[in-house]
Amino acid sequence: MALTSESPRPATALRRFDTLFIGGEWVAPRSGRRIRSIDPATEEVWAEVAEADAADVDDAVAAARAALHGPWSRLTPSQRGELMLRLAALMRRDAAALAEIESRDNGKPLRDTKSEIARAADWITFFAGAADKINGAQIPFRPDALAYTRREPVGVVAAILPWNSPISLCSWKLGPALAAGNTLVLKPAEQTPASLLALAALVAEAGFPAGVVNVVPGFGEIAGAALVAHKGVAKVSFTGDHRTAQKIMQAGAATLKRCTFECGGKSPYIVFADADIEKALTVALHSAFRSTGQSCSAGSRIFVERPLARAFAERMAERAQRIRTGDPLDPKTHIGPQTSAEQLAKTERYIALGREAGGHVLSGGRRPPHQPRGYFIEPTVFVDVENTSRLAQEEVFGPVAAVMPFDDEDHAVALANDTDYGLVGGLWTSDVSRAHRVAHRIEAGLVSVNTFRPVHWMLPYGGYKMSGIGRENGLEVLHEYTQTKTVVVELATGAPADPFAD
């Protein structure tokens, strides 16, 4: 039985975030509607947040365009970087308050949200340093002309964010977009609408010109659709389900919008018999169950060389039972609830599908007995699962892992690549040659050896196949937020040859 952290939660007043952040001002939504944010640990409304509609989106895009061609464009790159450093400092100052909002909004434990806010500030800091290092190039294509390139901002960026790590993943988009001189309209997920408005207050305090950053919480089919179709938006950066990304591409086709997508995964985690099994087991638990499995890069397909597979699964199941589920605001909690009733129902459905397909649950698979309310589910370890099953092929986005055997290196690679996704992959081995061979063969944007998912602001991150388009992070991402202009200046002083003279 999974351990449960229990601490009395004091009653708190309903929080109200009554305004949108548009053009540097706090403005009431045109419709007057509110989004009710549910605390997933209690199933109670903890906050009401202003809901944007298409008219509010129009206002936000207009404000972003005015800033793009106004005061923001007149700042030097170093000045942009200085404003970003101020924002990062304010995020560190208010990390505890921001973390509590996120934990109330999405159910992630404070121990995780505090760490994520700190790292989000580090992301902004890194890209602040990159702002004055975005260079073009001189091209010597002939001696009597000067040719050079400029890397200019793409324009207004619509950043559409997921509910699992709102501020953290916002920083992945906000940092490079601002460094490159773009302006933004941010739309948080309707399940977690509050924390980006708290971040907007820090943007204002940092002194960014009005309209550089705008925040419009709202529903995807209303505010999100308006953003994606808006002719004033040049680029959409989206993190979420691939089916939504497909709709964004279709809606943005009319104006040929640039798009970058990170669309989840079904990440393989390969353990060879010569690996350090204790380390591999510890990291497997974290990779599968961190954030209650609500991670695009969760290592949920665990392939173990056949002689060790059953023992590995049994030990993983035993250790999974020690994970403490409970109140996200309790510092002893390891993992909290799923973010929504809808997500919990989805996870329970996949557990049922796994059983129906012949899989067996070694641990978990039910609501923790000591959590009568909240969207909780125990960390779940499956065996006897076929890689072709829906449980193994489709993204659950819950704390569910399947341990499956493989016979040799070719078999492991074939199983790992037999999926529509390709975001992250990992392998454990003490054979250096094998490490490189297998890493080169895995179809994923990030492959790690003897670790898993080392996400960092310096490392490009993105997917193959249905896991997305484009890259986030690293200096490489700056190409996603700039467009290249070629300038040619004629240096010759003589009269040009007249091609029509004869």
TrEMBL record:
The answer on whether this UniProt entry bears the keyword Metal-binding reads: no
Active-site residues are E262
> Which Gene3D superfamilies does the entry link to?
Aldehyde Dehydrogenase, Chain A, domain 1, Aldehyde Dehydrogenase, Chain A, domain 2
Domain Aldehyde dehydrogenase residues, every copy: 26-487
Q: Which UniProt keywords apply?
A: Oxidation, Oxidoreductase, Potassium
Q: Which InterPro entries does the record cross-reference, listed alphabetically? A: Ald_DH/histidinol_DH, Ald_DH_C, Ald_DH_CS_CYS, Ald_DH_CS_GLU, Ald_DH_N, Aldehyde_DH_dom
Q: Which domain of life is it from?
A: Bacteria
SUPFAM superfamilies noted in UniProt: ALDH-like (SSF53720)
One of the entry's Gene Ontology molecular-function terms is: oxidoreductase activity, acting on the aldehyde or oxo group of donors, NAD or NADP as acceptor
Family as reported in the entry's similarity comment:
Belongs to the aldehyde dehydrogenase family.
Q: What is this protein called?
A: Aldehyde dehydrogenase (NAD+)
State the species of origin. Answer: Aquabacter spiritensis
